[in-house]
Amino acid sequence: MGHEHDCAHPLLRVEELGEAPQAVRLLGEDWVVWRDGQGQARAARDQCPHRGARLSLGRVCAGQLECPYHGWRFDGDGRCVAIPAVPGFTPPASHGLAVWPLTAFAGLWWLLPTDAALPPAFAAEHEPRLRKLTVGPFDVATSAPRVVENFLDMAHFGFVHEGWLGERSHGEVPPYQVDATPDGLHAHGCRAWQPRSNLQSTEGSWVDYEYRVPAPYTAVLEKAPDAQQGWREGIALFICPRDEEHSRAWFRLAVPDWDSSDEQVAAFQHTIFAQDQPVLESQRPRRLPLSGEVHSAADRMSSAYRRWLRERGVGFGVLP
Ligand code: FES
Q1: Best substitution site from 54, 61, 70, 95 to test ligand 1's pocket, by max atoms within 8 Å of Cβ?
Q2: How remote is the CA of residue 112 from the centroid of ligand 1, in Å?
Q3: What ipTM was predicted for this assembly?
Q4: Contact status, residue 283 vs residue 143, Cβ threshold 8 Å
Q5: Which of 51, 54, 55 is the best mutation target for the ligand 1 pocket, counting ligand atoms within 8 Å of the beta carbon and taking the most?
Q6: Average pLDDT for consecutive 10-residue bins of the chain (320 residues)?
Q7: Rounded CA gap, 259 and 88, in Å?
Q8: Where are the beta strands (DSSP E) in 224-294?
């Protein structure tokens, strides 16, 4: 999968990780995630070094991960600290696990390979007048770049999300600009017709957007600053590439809606995603093709995204 191993990857929501170890999938491999004795989240390959059992089927005892098969225990650094069948034995280093500490960011636990950085926080994340909420996971049977492109795509609103995010009678995508940034890409001057552009509106109007791609599988949408308040509402999309054709996504919302319950906010995102999902899963190939798809001027951002991924050697699996 190229340079995906250099990226930070979200694995699960912070509150999803309780007492029990969790199984997650990343880049075609199974991982186990647990909290050590200090509450620090840890990740390791989900395979016991003894006889290969899945460690995620075990349990956590005093911060140590216990294998479900013979009860070998591993501490937060991956050292094997107990082999119950041989109580007096001190296991050597070779009996241990390679362990990665996870980092909490935007409501998610992230695995950072050596030298990888977290995606930069978007401005709305730091705006105290906006409510922050992480919604998901959303599992979808397609590659991560297909999900990113869908998020960047304004031309589908009036069709996939008719009456919600767009109307087919307002399908035009006015010209917009795409610039390279030190981290990735920035699309600005974007405009989309929305049937209900904000909580107060009663009729449709054009909404001004900006999009950023600061990492291969992260995209951020920010609306134009609120005229009275000055803040910019934003939504970030974070994707875990489970393998080359399966993705797990979360949305990080920074929105002015303080009245709806968490469940109501999440329900809206689930409705929108449920509209996207069948179309996303119908796209062939599931991995971005190197050639064979055609573009329109409305696809300027996704075309730039493909070029940018290609330059990084990321995200393409299908040869022409
Ligand atoms: Fe894990 Fe034996 S397979 S302890």
Answers
A1: 70
A2: 27
A3: 1.00
A4: no
A5: 51
A6: 71 96 96 95 98 98 97 98 97 97 95 83 85 96 97 96 92 96 94 77 85 95 83 93 96 93 94 97 93 94 95 64
A7: 59
A8: 234-243, 246-255, 288-289
- To 5 degrees, how large is the angle CA 150–CA 156–CA 159? 140
> Hey, whose CA ends up nearest to atom 4 of ligand 1?
70
Do the Cβ atoms of 4 and 242 come closer than 8 Å? Answer: no
* Single pTM value for the model: 0.94
Q: Ligand 1 centre from 318 Cα, in Å?
A: 38
**Cα 265 to Cα 64, 134, 153, distances in angstroms:** 36, 10, 22
Which ligand 1 atom is the nearest neighbour of the CA of 72?
4
Q: If you measure from the C-alpha of residue 155 to the centroid of ligand 1, how many angstroms do you get, rounded to a whole number?
A: 52
Residue 241 CA neighbour count, 13 Å, CB half: 28
